[in-house]
Amino acid sequence: MVHALHETWRVTRDAVLDVRPVVGDPQVLVRDRDGSETVCGGLRWDSPDPEGHPEAEAALAQVVADGRFVVAASRQFDWADTFKSADDLAETIHEEWERDMDEETTLQLMRGMRQAGRGAQAIIRQTIRIQLLRKV
Questions:
Q1: CA angle 101-36-110, nearest 5°?
Q2: 3-class SS at 132?
Q3: What is the pLDDT along the chain (136 residues), one digit of tens a residue?
């Protein structure tokens, strides 16, 4: 990975964006048609691989220490994926995420969707970090 960042440094004129999820449990919520949100629970990490991106963290630290890039700016924001039903959300988690939704979160989601009525949305919200890496 350090080699890839060295190559990126070689071909980059000015800056690169580093965009990754922040380590932690994304939240499962229900939003009713009036915009009110109810937290149902979180999504647990469910993979043999380490959570987050430790190799990327180490590689970035190395190229910064080597003097190739400086972190010129760093921000966090919430990313939300919305679904029309609890089933759509659960299917997406099963097929695309290395996460697991426990029984309590599933029950809270189903209850929340039922109580919110027509126009309700199931939501997964997670924190994303974006860093501007300026070439030195």
A1: 35
A2: strand
A3: 888 999 999 999 999 999 998 888 899 999 999 999 999 999 988 777 777 888 889 999 999 999 999 999 999 999 999 999 999 999 999 898 878 889 999 999 999 999 999 999 999 999 999 999 999 9
User: Of 97, 119, 129, 130, which Cα lies nearest the Cα of 28?
Assistant: 97
- pTM of the predicted model as reported, rounded to 2 decimal places: 0.83
Please report the sign of the dihedral spanned by the C-alpha atoms of residue 79, residue 85, residue 88, residue 93.
Answer: positive
Question: What Å distances lie between residue 66 and 9, 41, 46, 54, 78, CA to CA?
Answer: 11, 41, 34, 18, 31
Nearest to 33 by CA among 128, 108, 121: 121
> CB–CB of 81/132 below 8 Å?
no
d(Cα 65, Cα 59) in Å, to the nearest integer? 10
The first and second tokens of residue 106, run together, are 């599933």
Residue 90 is encoded by which pair of tokens? 């659960």
3-class secondary-structure state, position 85: coil
One-letter amino acid at 39 equals V
